[in-house]
Amino acid sequence: MKLVTAEEMKRLDQLASSAYHVPSIVLMENAGLRVVEVISRHFQGKVRGKRIAIFAGKGNNGGDGLVVARHLMNAGAEVQVFMLARTEDLKGDAAANLQILQKMKARIYCITEERHLQRVDIVLLYTDLVVDAIFGTGFKGAAMGLPARVIQLINERGKPVVAVDLPSGLEADTGKVLGPCIQARYTVTFALPKLGLILEPGAQYVGELIVADISIPNSLIEGQPLKHNLITEEWCRSLLPRRKPWGHKGDFGHVFVIGGSPGMTGAVVLAGEAALRSGAGLVTVGVPRSLNPVIEEKLTEVMSKPLAETEGKVISVEALPQIEAFLEKVSVVAVGPGMSTDFAPVNMVRQLILRLSVPAVIDADGLNALAGKVDILKEAKVPLVITPHPGEMARLTGMAVDEVQDNRVHVARKAAEEWGVVVVLKGAKTVVASPSGEIFINPSGNVGMATGGSGDVLTGVISGLIAQGMQVLEAAVVGTFIHGKAGDEAVQEKGRMGLVAGDIIDRLPEVLKGMER
Ligand SMILES: NC(=O)C1=CN([C@@H]2O[C@H](COP(=O)(O)OP(=O)(O)OC[C@H]3O[C@@H](n4cnc5c(N)ncnc54)[C@H](O)[C@@H]3O)[C@@H](O)[C@H]2O)[C@H](O)CC1
Ligand SMILES: [K+]
Fold it and tell me: How far apart are CA 140 and CA 452, in angstroms?
């Protein structure tokens, strides 16, 4: 599903009027009607007599609210409209709808001074439902002054709120909530979801999200170069490889996981098992020679390959010829789980990337090996996926973690475009970015997955899908979704605190089974 920024939405709005001659006031009317439908559903169709307080800002979001007021009045509801602006401040379509309401003798109060809040507080006490039409896509920064106080009052009274287009106080493009923000029961957003409704923390204020058609022509929407996407289950289902009944394990690829070091053997085991549970035909984990007996103990279906090691029992540069020779037998490499950041494995990774002859997923210490040497990624001759968590992304970009987290979409896109790789920037609402700047936001997953080894599992899932012939971008998108969905299934049973990475692997088969075609 496509997502939009405020700017893109404005352009759609303008083109609908200028290129398709859909008058903007028709769009506003439709927006209002869609909101009324949700309100009617909330009251099981019985709107008559319901006490509804509508809060309208000075822009077109407020205009939508005035349309809602008109239709609710006609439906017999007891409507009170609070304008967070002077009536003369309204322009265009919003002003037109205000005039209509004035002609209808609607109860309209302007909240322009602190003392006006008393009335708001009293009305809220007896209100059945609130309509938030204060700010929409025009909002930036933090709500302050009277609007902020009104938002706080509405939240404190705890009545159900229908947010028009966006909960007021939330930034459409970033999902940032820098001040008070409406906690909505429903958000009726127009045409396409705004990025900020999906990103954190904005997504926590949305309630039930309804994407409402307001008659912007589909051909106009499809014709726009919209580069933000929400990953959906149906889309992932359509991308999953089909299994031919006569297939044999050779058809489903061979994953080679390279990593492991003393005390960190579990990471390669998790990655290897996850790859197998994601449908790969064969999986081999390459570990320092001394650790191989321990790994063999832990593995059954997954094979292992002892690699040349240093005295410290980490993978040494001498392992490169062995690894290169083995590349002929595999379909994809996963580099990094538990590898350690000793000089030798770091050096090995930096050289391996230039010699890869199959796609690779680079994760964890494989990424830490590239801090300060990130240009190596640009010289790879094969498609790459990197799967940094925010700390690893900070090390790769030289930014502070907060800076990365503050601009997740921008940071992921810039890295993907500059380094020419698929970037999976993990975290709440993982962002997948392609070298062409396409963005895919993952809605699945939960905080229970913030546990050691969860990233190793994701590396295995993505590698397992690439082994079965998926393009690296599709494997990253689908793998991220499946990994999160398996975590969502696991947390139902294990809870957010008790969930461990192995629980995610255990749920992969049922998630995949539910998506097979
Ligand atoms: N096709 C569509 O998308 C349609 C959208 N509609 C509605 O229009 C709003 C966008 O309206 P706009 O006038 O651009 O801005 P807002 O109403 O969201 O904001 C009002 C006003 O608020 C000011 N402002 C911005 N930030 C702050 C702040 N931090 N504090 C105080 N004031 C702030 C700014 O000056 C804005 O002008 C969209 O959401 C839809 O609801 C159409 O009605 C239907 C078609
Ligand atoms: K709003």
Answer: 37
Q: Which atom of ligand 1 is nearest to 10's Cα?
A: 3
pLDDT tens digit sequence for 3-35: 999 999 999 999 999 999 999 999 999 999 999
Other C-beta atoms closer than 10 Å to the C-beta of 443 total 17
Taking the CA of 27 as reference, the closest ligand is 1
Q: Return the structure tokens found at 330.
A: 């595999």
Closest CA to 265 of 294, 237, 239: 294
Give the binding-site residues of ligand 1, using a 6 Å CB cut-off: 9, 12-13, 27-28, 31, 57-64, 135-144, 147, 164-165, 190-191, 214, 216
Q: 137 C-alpha to center of ligand 2: Å?
A: 8
- Ligand 1, atom 30: nearest CA belongs to which residue? 143
Write down all domains in the chain, each with its CATH number in brackets: 6-224 (3.40.50.10260), 233-511 (3.40.1190.20)
For 312, the enclosing helix (H) or strand (E) is: none
User: Quick one: 287 exposed, middle or buried, by C-beta within 10 A (0-12, 13-18, 19+)?
Assistant: buried
Of 14, 22, 61, 97, which is best to mutate to test ligand 1, by the most ligand atoms within 8 angstroms of its C-beta?
A: 61
Strand partners, 378: none
Rounded to the nearest whole angstrom, what is the distance from the C-alpha of residue 443 to the centroid of ligand 1?
26
Please give the ipTM for the structure prediction: 0.95
d(CA 56, CA 355): 61
**Residue 141 labeled ligand binder:** yes
| 277 within 8 A of 304, measured Cβ to Cβ | no
pLDDT tens-place string over residues 438-491: 999 999 999 988 888 999 999 999 999 999 999 999 999 999 999 999 999 999
What are residue 360's phi and psi, to 5 degrees? -145, 150
Closest CA to 167 of 197, 200, 193: 197
Spatial CB neighbours of 284, under 8 Å, sequence gap ≥ 6: 254, 255, 256, 257, 272, 302, 303, 304, 305, 326, 330
Q: How far apart are CA 431 and CA 410, in angstroms?
A: 10
